[in-house]
Amino acid sequence: MPQKRYEILNEQWSQIKDLFHMPKTGLHSIDNHTIFNAILWISRIRAACRDLPECFGSWKTVYSRFGKWRNGGTLLTIFQHLNSEAFYFH
Fold it and tell me: Which residues form the Insertion element IS402-like domain (predicted)?
């Protein structure tokens, strides 16, 4: 299956996956990779969370995890990490 423009590549994900905390929810929780791709989809499409396709899981879960990552500084840490790595890709 071809990579979609709004999805992070597996190679890119491997660089940041350890910066995320594991969710403290139930066994059927959506993995962080899927949640991050959902956030990228929302940002790329400029859609409301409620318009998120079902393939990403519950929009409420995505919205909740986004809020935790934003408020806890996880997203800032990730973007700072990615920004520092960008200088090595000449």
Answer: 10-78
